[in-house]
Amino acid sequence: MRLYLLALNPTDSVTQGFLPAAARLGLDVTVLTDHAEAHRLAYAGLPSPPEVLACEVQDFREVVGLVSRHHAPAALFSNSDHLQTQTALAAGYFGLPAKDWRATLRAKNKAELRRHLSATGLDTVWSAELAPGQDPATLADPPFPCVLKPREGVASEDVALVTDAAELALRHREIQHRRPGATLVVEELLTGDLFTLETLGDGRDRRVLGGFRTRLSPPPHFVEEVLEFVPAYPQAVLDQVLAQLDALGVGLGACHTEFVLQADGRARLIEVNYRAIGDQCDLMLAQILEIPYFEHVLTAHLGRPLPDVPGPRTDRRARNEVVCADRAGTLTAAPGRYDGEADGVRLAYRPLRPVGERHEHYRTNRDYLGVVWAIGADQAAVDAAVAGFVAAHRWEITP
């Protein structure tokens, strides 16, 4: 059976998660990508590297054409935010298990997500779109402070808190300079503690796997710095989030949902990422739950029912913390990959930027130098293990 995996740039989720899982399932894998050489280099060290074919994956018609000329597909799958709708349309063309393309579009298009949830009556957030070149002064009474972000953005890139009309105009000019053809969204700031919900569905049933409490960088930016595992949420909170996912049409495969929990118990969605959580959290989640997480995601896309997944792991705690660059320059010193266990805490460190590489200061997750995560039975012990690793190592950036 052949799995077609659509991708843009290589990611740890695919290289370390989905490709090894596909091999364990006995699947032949063809990676379709517009970054073919980067993928071949990324997979060179794998025991069974997948076939990599160049394809304009952002056009579902090109995907359909290439697959039609190649081997018969058993499944089409992507873990990219940018390729969910294309994958859904192509999978549907071949009569394979597919996400509802309307749901993938609602999740990706942040303005459409707000309109749809408002139309269902589940939640209404003040939101307005700014077309390329549109003057933000044309907006009617934005509720400052508010958030400015790309309509189809990811990873907090070009997301900023703006406090007044002058700052909105300034940030708008900056983002339009970097993204001249992008439509932006201005929406009200949703205050409260930030959490995630991780779910997995086979199109009929859904499993709730827990979530993470998220700590962000100081405003005006929204860089995720620390995530702590939350085994289970109060039922009232869970019901609110799941009702909104149902309204959006989320059902097949992995979904990573971000929401704020307000003081009155109201859960309000920030965004829906219709794929697995990234930045090593998916790899960590598989170990927290002790399940073949990546296999479960792929088998759902093969049309198989999900097996039983253990209930909330209230005996586990975990912390995922990134080390961020605080300035532009060349990384001249950093620790290498590490895995260890001590006093009941399992700890891992993964470099995300090679020593010797130069970068600007982005104020997004592109500033990540590495990620350290730990799993154990006690949150204080887990936190101490992560803090100890960070304190014992150095990351140096030379201007």
Descriptive notes:
The protein is of the alpha+beta class and 399 residues long. The chain contains 11 helices and 20 strands. The strands form 4 sheets. Strands 13-12-9-10-11-14-19-17-16 form a 9-stranded antiparallel β-sheet, with helices on both faces. Strands 3-2-1-4 form a 4-stranded parallel β-sheet. Strands 5-8-6-7 form a 4-stranded antiparallel β-sheet, sandwiched between helices. Strand 9 and strand 10 form a beta hairpin. The radius of gyration is 21 Å and the shape is globular.
CATH architecture of the largest domain: 2-Layer Sandwich
Number of strands: 20
The helix tally amounts to 11
**Percent helix range:** 25-40%
The N- to C-terminal Cα distance equals: 50 Å
CATH class type of the largest domain = Alpha Beta
What structural class results from the helix and strand content? Answer: alpha+beta
Strand arrangement across the biggest beta sheet: 13-12-9-10-11-14-19-17-16
Radius of gyration: 21 Å
The averaged pLDDT comes out at: 96
Are there runs of 5+ residues with pLDDT below 50, and where?
none
Shape: globular
Task: Report the β-strand fraction as a percent range.
Answer: 25-35%
Main beta-sheet strand count, sense and barrel state: 9 strands, antiparallel
What's the CATH superfamily of the largest domain, by name?
Answer: ATP-grasp fold, B domain
